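We examine the record.

___
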Amino acid sequence: MPEVVGVRFKPCTKMYYFSPGAITDLKIGDPVIVETAQGEELGWVVMAPTMVSDDEIKGKLKTIVRRATPVDLAMAEEFRSQEAAALAKCREKIAELGLPMKAIGAEYSFNGERLVISFVAEERVDFRELVRQLAKSFKAHVEMKQIGARDEAKLLGGYAVCGRELCCASWLTEFHPVSIKMAKQQDLPLTPTEISGVCGRLLCCLVFENDLYVEAKQSMPKVGSVVNTPHGKGTIVSLNVLTETLTVELQNGLTVEVKASEVTPLAEQKRPARPESKSSH
């Protein structure tokens, strides 16, 4: 079992495993320099040295290069302060070249050697001339990173329909698959405005309570089931998972709300079809 530390490069982003190597006293919050596929980068320890199983290691485990020094931190802060100006310059160049794309963010590496421009575009864009001009202006290696609608919302931030700061921008570190089936499982209206976030995609929070709804519904009778209630026999027309109650249409036509624990399912029966009205000739 290898010993690893968890390192995160920015708040609300994925945590990566690195080997502590010869550095034995790392603590949460310590700044470190690590080797990534893009070169050396500044990160922060978010998980103290821990033994993990080999199954949790994806690919080759890289070793922390060294602790970050005050000079590293000062340099990172200096280049961070230049990112807004770099983004404005990039947008200016995009307009000059007439490229069908929108720059969303600019991020320098801690030492200023690399500048990553995040952008959105509806089609493939030839940005080679843009990269050449930006590299000449900033004296840095420029990378263009196309992102999707969810990543755009994460970068820009904002508030959701619930009135709280966007989950993706405030605490969510990874995006999880969301499906329309989850909205159906939670008996939500399926109109796009009701179940979509500011990014235009399905709400990430549909994932959070889905398992609860699945588990709760497994212990409750299904809609359409015939049950005995304290008020008599009837057919379930809807469920309320949060209050664990059922809405039941009785045989006399009245509708009542009862607790799920108060009903007894009968042998599976089909709800009688309503008689069709015949038109007179």
